[in-house]
Amino acid sequence: MTEHDLIRELAEKNASKIVMLVADGLGGLPLTAGGSTELETAHTPNLDRLAARGTSGSSIPVLPGITPGSGPGHLGLFGYDPLEFKIGRGALEATGIGFELGPDDVAARGNFCTLDAAGKISDRRAGRIPSEESFAVVEKLQGVKIPGVETFVKPVKEHRFVVVFRGPGLDGRVADTDPQAVGVAPLDPQPAHAAAAKTAAVAQEFVKQARVILKDEQKANGMVLRGFAAKPALPSYEELYGLKAAAIAVYPMYKGLARLVGMTLVGKAQSLGEQIAELKKAWNDYDFFFLHFKYTDSTGEDGAFEQKVKRIEELDAAIPQIEALRPDVLIVTGDHSTPSRLKSHSWHPVPTLLVADTCRPDGLTKFSERDCLRGGFGIFPAKHLMLLAMAHAQRFGKYGA
Amino acid sequence: MTEHDLIRELAEKNASKIVMLVADGLGGLPLTAGGSTELETAHTPNLDRLAARGTSGSSIPVLPGITPGSGPGHLGLFGYDPLEFKIGRGALEATGIGFELGPDDVAARGNFCTLDAAGKISDRRAGRIPSEESFAVVEKLQGVKIPGVETFVKPVKEHRFVVVFRGPGLDGRVADTDPQAVGVAPLDPQPAHAAAAKTAAVAQEFVKQARVILKDEQKANGMVLRGFAAKPALPSYEELYGLKAAAIAVYPMYKGLARLVGMTLVGKAQSLGEQIAELKKAWNDYDFFFLHFKYTDSTGEDGAFEQKVKRIEELDAAIPQIEALRPDVLIVTGDHSTPSRLKSHSWHPVPTLLVADTCRPDGLTKFSERDCLRGGFGIFPAKHLMLLAMAHAQRFGKYGA
């Protein structure tokens, strides 16, 4: 029996409310030997008080030693094994810019490049064309018309864009066209699986028309396409857990990830304060709330230890407003660690806290990496967090008689 | 996606050096209630200092409660699930005496036995014939000639030997010929799978010729063959991790296990001091170094608690010389526990320590069974140790975007 089948079998409905507050990249490292992490340095009276009430643990996003991107990191938190459920690069890129993929869509990442007179790549990033220039080029590509297929071209940043083909019978298994070198021509889109023959032909037609449209561009007169992918087949929160789920996020990537598991995007918050206001407004309409806080990751990526400490303290200060709604289960966690010291995502376990009246106390009085190692959930795979959420919300029946 | 596929996808090369120091049978037990284990009794200032710098944990060789032999114990440490990757008994026995198996080889363990006039076994161990007598009998068996097949017969100890058949189309699935009783004749080698028909015929011919050669022996005039096995199909360290790996071991078994995963045997060290000298010499030529220290196991097997304590202290004293090479990742672990109290391998978790600049501190200041239970890696499967080694050496890319 798979874990998802077990969840479907046991899931029950009740009036409980679950809040999952994801502080992106929450876990950290000390800057120097014998030092403290960002979370250990931060003054977090509210999180510490919750730690005393709830149960803590250290969650492993994928496997020990494996550093996840945002996609696998969030899939784990949402209860989808990140090694089993994968989001193709094109689908993730489309998701990241807020493009809502449908079941008939195949998305690919595009890079503009510069082609010489012979059609060979002379600059793989089109001279790092500024976004505003690139956006104008993308606009011209709206002129591509392929019979029987709807085509969407969306700018990302600088030389990067996303193309989505929508139509019946499309399949993501098309090979990259990027030769990964200059002095050679972009490859023609080719099927990597027989089922993708039509998609490859559509992509060929797209590239052909684009060449004509872009022929007079100085920098962006060519393109390479990578990471063709259909929308991943993820069971929805409603179908899997019987939860009506709302996502309250600021950035498109996290809104997109939430949409992929069937959450409803709520509000247009641009700050944590606005996110909490949206949470209050939506409180009666949903069972589960995913709140995404970006800045613990971005400060970590910047290597800004003190800024990350401040962002953690900002998060801590918002906790009482969430508590005031009296959620039955309140979870504070991250999708991975982003230690300022490494200026990148890392493999280290993520401090995780769950507060509910049904928690068994584990004797902790502080929320930190070191404390969470000794927490009542131990060191556990992130994909099991939703099992604990459902259990503490008393939304699971008994397994077997 | 399998763990090995994930490793292959994420593995990157850099200039880092990883040292895995395996103290065989490291874990122990107190001799009396309320006492200390061998490791807890030993004075280990260097290991304790490393514990303060690194991250510790308790590794489970196979599964909780399962006591491994040397083969599964080391496979786990090397990152090969010991339940998925198996080394047949014949192949392990050949490996243990330093016989390097090739892809066309099938090995079996042989026991000399005594047959009565009717050809029935009267002594299953040939009167526990002394090794020197047995070696002379093995020498006579070099006279066996089987067309199209090369035959190797190698002594092990007392009545035990190894036979290896080398030739095209051989297969290890041949049934044991040991009836496990006296008063009955040895069984004829029979294929346990259709693909092993040729191998069984070869083994039958071997036994037939051996009967003639040994007919005048007083004790060792017969034999039984067990554990037929081909060389196990293990991906190499180079292919799996992209690591150029060196093995610095004293005993044939551990050299053989390292060879099976594609490590290069370095030097002919006969002591820990010589092993470290070899490590220094080979330092620039490899990425990964497996150092095997046997005596924590052999003293445990002998039930020599105090001797095991001394051997642990000997190992501790050698640590600064390894540190002086400035490995990026230094691991100290064991392939299983061998408590002096039990005089045998055991299932207890193994104290494990990893030191790297990328370690998250776990607050420990001592290396011991009790401390490792509270370490930052928690209680984890030994097969995940190499994931942690690769991560802390920053040899893994990010999984997903």
The radius of gyration of chain A is 23 Å
Largest inter-chain contact set:
A-B, 39 and 29 residues
The 3D shape of chain A can be described as globular
Mean pLDDT of chain A: 96
Note poorly predicted spans of chain A: none
Domain tally of chain A: 2
Number of DSSP helical runs of chain A: 14
Would you kindly provide a written description of the structure presented here, covering whatever features stand out?
2 copies of one chain form a homodimer. Chain A has helices spanning 3-10, 38-41, 45-53, 70-78, 89-96, 131-141, 197-213, 237-241, 252-260, 272-282, 295-301, 305-323, 369-372, 385-392; strands at 18-23, 55-60, 105-115, 121-123, 150-157, 160-166, 222-230, 245-248, 264-265, 288-293, 329-333, 350-355, 378-381. The model of chain A has no long low-confidence stretch (mean pLDDT 96). Chain A is built from 14 helices and 13 strands. The two termini of chain A are 16 Å apart. With 401 residues, the first copy, chain A, is α/β, with parallel strands linked by helices. In chain A, strand 5 and strand 6 (160-166) form a beta hairpin. Chains A and B meet through helix 4 and helix 5 of A and helix 1 and helix 14 of B.
In short:
Chain A is an alpha/beta fold. The first copy, chain A, is built from 14 helices and 13 strands.
Describe the secondary-structure layout.
The structure is a homodimer of 401-residue chains.
Chain A: H1 3-10, E1 18-23, H2 38-41, H3 45-53, E2 55-60, H4 70-78, H5 89-96, E3 105-115, E4 121-123, H6 131-141, E5 150-157, E6 160-166, H7 197-213, E7 222-230, H8 237-241, E8 245-248, H9 252-260, E9 264-265, H10 272-282, E10 288-293, H11 295-301, H12 305-323, E11 329-333, E12 350-355, H13 369-372, E13 378-381, H14 385-392
Parallel strand pairs in A: 1-10, 1-11, 2-13, 8-9, 8-10
Antiparallel strand pairs in A: 2-12, 3-4, 3-6, 3-7, 5-6, 11-12
Helix pairs in contact in A: 5-9, 10-12, 11-12
